[in-house]
Design brief:
- This protein has a domain of 47 residues.
- The protein has 4 helices and no strands.
- 36% of the residues lie in helices and 0% in strands.
- It has 119 residues and is mainly α.
Length: 119
């Protein structure tokens, strides 16, 4: 890479100067929350859940079932995301006995493995 084409490694100015915002006090910043003189304790953070990003294909009819379930939950005044519906389905399958789970899985349309090569 030529010397005149080096990337700009300059840090952005993240200071609060000129914005009319006062810097946070130590208590606001959370620095002294566990101080016994103050008498406050910082709330315990929940354990972080490790996330896995994945992609998959499904027939359009199955995708429409997700939309149908989303609308059903909207009628119950509960906003639900596609990932929540899929995760709930996993938990429901886990609760089934093996013979019931096999019958559900046998009822699915078999899909070709791998990406669609028609594009």
């Amino acid at each position: 890479m030529p010397a005149n084409k080096l990337p700009n490694l300059k840090k952005k100015n993240t200071r609060r100067r000129g914005l009319g915002i006062a810097p946070p006090t130590e208590l606001e910043a959370g620095n002294n929350l566990n101080d016994p003189e103050i008498g406050m304790e910082a709330p315990a953070r929940p354990a972080r859940v490790e996330m896995v990003k994945d992609s998959y294909s499904m027939p359009k009819a199955d995708y429409e079932i997700i939309d149908e379930l989303t609308f059903r939950m909207a009628a119950q005044k509960r906003r639900v995301y596609k990932a929540e519906i899929l995760r709930a389905g996993l938990h429901a399958l886990k609760a089934l006995p093996d013979d019931k789970m096999l019958s559900v899985l046998d009822g699915l349309v078999k899909l070709k493995k791998g990406p669609d090569k028609s594009v």
